Amino acid sequence: MVTSLAMPTTAAVALEGVSRTYGTGPAAVRAVDDVTIGFPRGSWTAVMGPSGSGKSTLLHLAAGLERADSGRIRLGDTDIAAAGDDELTALRRTRIGFVFQSFNLIGSLTAAENVALPLRLAGREPSSTEVTDILAAVGLAERARHRPRELSGGQQQRVAIARAMITRPEILFADEPTGALDTRAGDRVLELMRAMTAAGQSILMVTHDAAAAARADAVVFLRDGRLAGRLEGAGAATVAEHLVALEG
């Protein structure tokens, strides 16, 4: 069983002996179990595994959205496992982008206002051009004044992606970013992600889609909260076969 993967010398984010358990006693679930792994700067890594394998928990821990029970988590040279709440909030506003599976848009704000929100929270007033350009990049320039209830699920997902990208974060964490999108919109988002890594940003993406995972530089597999393999440069068919073998 794989419990660790080689730590890159320069990691965008690195986990060392990280564990997270939910519940206590007989009902306790070890969602992430003593994981050590590093993700190189400027790289795009997909995380896959059977349902309940710990993918989303790993993503939340790496982004500082949840606290680990044990181990260290470093964002560059910053130990986020030891950071206080205020420091974590500042990191999420300035260095981290996160695309939530449930979108997490604010219903009272327009698409443009949702996208601009991270910059405003960080104390910077974005220009209208800046917001329009990022919405255009995800194919939603004409929906800038619409509120979430006036948008389809796929459109809301693209607004959430634009919101995470507008700060140009060091690392983008994305939980099923193409899950609610049709093929054309999904391809557009994946192309944007590739452009991000070309500009030196890093991406850690959870997905069930083998075709989306194959667009990444590497695919890391989890099973029962532990690392269960890694593929680099693999096609969608190979990625799917590996996932099916784990599920079996």
Please describe what this structure looks like.
InterPro entries: AAA+_ATPase (IPR003593), ABC_transporter-like_ATP-bd (IPR003439), ABC_transporter-like_CS (IPR017871), ABC_transpr_LolD-like (IPR015854), MacB-like_ATP-bd (IPR017911), P-loop_NTPase (IPR027417). This is ABC transporter. It comes from Amycolatopsis rifamycinica. Keywords: ATP-binding, Nucleotide-binding, Transport. One of its GO terms (cellular component) is plasma membrane. This protein is α/β, with parallel strands linked by helices. The protein has a domain at 107-168. The chain is 34% helix and 26% strand. The protein contains 8 helices and 10 strands. The chain has helices at 55-62, 85-94, 111-121, 128-137, 153-165, 183-198, 210-214, 236-247; strands spanning 11-22, 29-40, 44-48, 70-75, 78-79, 96-99, 171-175, 202-206, 218-223, 226-232. It has a 6-stranded mixed β-sheet, with helices on both faces. It has a 4-stranded antiparallel β-sheet with strand order 2-1-4-5, covered by helices on one side. Helix 3 (111-121) crosses helix 4. The longest helix has 16 residues, at 183-198. The chain is globular. It starts with 10 loop residues before the first strand and ends with a helix.
